[in-house]
Design a protein that fits this description.
transcription regulation, two-stranded antiparallel sheet, Arc Repressor Mutant, subunit A, 3 domains, D-Maltodextrin-Binding Protein, domain 2, globular, alpha/beta, 291 residues, 11 strands, nine-stranded mixed sheet
Length: 291
């Protein structure tokens, strides 16, 4: 039987794409990651990773092991959550404010699992782009795309949401970038970072339509209305969309988990925050932060 710690280090390499990136995510040194990787390959008697000058590339067998390892890690997290919930029954209502894209396309898909894990906690999720006030108890916990500056908050980065350009497979100008038209936000979101990024890429090319929320952008792009800037975790998962090559700089937004310092000792709030942290940690498409 192989050592789980060796497999955990291999997972980090697969997620990061480099030994140094894996070392940073695990808070260990480069040599430890390399040693663990060699040990796993010796245990399994197979080459999992091709070492390149500036990166690591999974071999065909490595890709298969990586997918199985991700499932094992997800199960391990689930066992930990269920065990903790059994040992300390929790009850009550926790309100969570989150950006619409995360509330609709990430959190909603995990509500059934959360209810199974913490049947006594009622999680009330509000999808809103505005920055709620935790001091005024507008929410108990919040996910934010801008790091909060309030001294009364407890903050942790739990992920990074990468963006790319997407269009429908049936978009008429799919292979002719000079004729691309873009799906953007309306004027009230002119200062939003992803709006500036998208319009900078668009340049002199026209905006075909404006929609006030990213779910609208997603639906419009699937319908062939133009090119949209979407989170990669959303665009890559949809078979009707294709990721487009772009000449602009890569763009991403950090995801911050925050609560008021007076609530950090609340068992129900701690349970919700722990669950969210593990949900992002087990979702490499959102580039998890350090635990």
């Amino acid at each position: 039987m192989f050592d789980w710690e060796n497999l955990r280090h291999f997972l980090a390499v697969g997620n990061a794409g480099t030994l140094s990136g894996a070392a940073r995510s695990l808070r260990v040194d480069h040599a430890t990651v390399s040693r663990r990787l060699v040990a796993l390959e010796d245990e399994l008697q197979v080459v999992l990773v091709e070492r390149l000058p500036r990166a690591c590339r999974l071999t065909p067998v490595g890709i298969q092991v990586f997918e199985q390892a991700k499932a094992m890690e997800s199960t391990a997290f689930a066992i930990e959550r269920h065990t903790r919930a059994t040992q300390a029954p929790l009850s009550g209502k926790v309100t969570l404010s989150a950006p619409p894209v995360l509330a609709t396309h990430f959190l909603a898909t995990r509500m059934a699992d959360f209810q199974t894990t913490y049947p006594g906690i009622q999680l009330s999720v509000t999808a809103e782009a505005r920055q709620v006030s935790l001091s005024r108890r507008e929410a108990d916990v919040a996910l934010r795309l801008i790091r909060p500056k309030e001294s009364s908050n407890v903050v942790r980065r739990i992920g990074r949401m990468r963006f790319a350009l997407y269009a429908s497979h049936h978009y008429p100008a799919l292979h002719d970038p000079s004729h691309w038209t873009f799906i953007a936000y309306d004027e009230q979101f002119a200062d939003m970072p992803q709006q500036k990024w998208l319009l900078n890429i668009a340049g002199q090319r026209p905006v075909s339509c404006e929609l006030s929320d990213i779910s609208g952008h997603f639906i419009a792009a699937r319908a062939g209305a133009g090119v949209a800037g979407l989170p990669c975790f959303l665009g890559d998962a949809d078979k009707q969309l294709v990721r487009l090559d772009e000449s602009g700089a890569p763009f991403s937004r950090d995801i911050w988990l925050v609560t008021h310092r007076d609530l950090r000792r609340s068992e129900t709030v701690r349970a919700v925050m722990g669950y969210l942290g593990e949900a992002f940690q087990s979702s490499p498409e959102l580039e998890p932060g350090q635990r």
